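Example 192, ligand magnesium ion.
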Amino acid sequence: MKNIVLFGAPGCGKGTQAQRLRDHYGIDHVSTGEVIREHIRRGTELGRSMETCIAQGKLVPDEVVIGMIGDYVVTHKEGAGCIFDGFPRTTVQAEAFDGMLTGHGLKVDVMIDIQVPEEELVRRILLRGKESGRTDDASEEVVRGRLEVYRAQTAVVSDFYAAQGKYAVVDGMGTMEEVFERIVAVIDGLKK
Ligand code: AP5
Ligand code: MG
């Protein structure tokens, strides 16, 4: 099982590339953002508790996403592997993730950081916001706030994987196909 963490700021292309990688490698894709939005759509108690957080572009509490991914790992541990998109997003999440994977004899193979300049991130998200219906895509103020949250709380998670020799950077500018090929080159270059 190969476990790949797709990392990077809001709008860098994690979701776009995760779908392509899932089809290319026949492995699974889980996005904590999607799982949360699904809870909100279904109006579950958990969804209602996270609605304001999401709309304001803040991170939801670590224990909530750690619980979600914990459930996911338990039910998918026999699978061919997975693309984790948007998780882990804090060092606390990264440490908990390592612990739960190790408990099942699994590990993260690589974190791939898709890097895109800030103005392009804002442009992409506001463009998508015209149709996505995502509450956190609607205003430039919230989008810039999400980027600030990324810098303040999430960017540091790359150090956690770099220290384990599991961190790769990919240029996220160019066409979706070009970015995809760069990511595939990293994954195919991993030791079996
Ligand atoms: P999440 O859903 O993870 O959103 P995000 O990280 O803000 O990122 P996006 O989904 O906006 O962007 P993306 O990188 O997936 O890019 P995409 O492929 O869509 O999280 C949302 C919220 O949930 C968080 O703010 C937080 O509240 C909560 N949450 C989630 N995980 C959490 C966690 N672990 N801990 C705590 N809270 C958590 O691309 C963006 C756009 O650009 C698209 O329109 C796409 O078509 C376009 N595009 C993609 N690639 C290119 C390209 N090469 N050229 C031009 N356009 C492109
Ligand atoms: Mg996404």
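Summary: The chain is about 60% helix and 15% strand.
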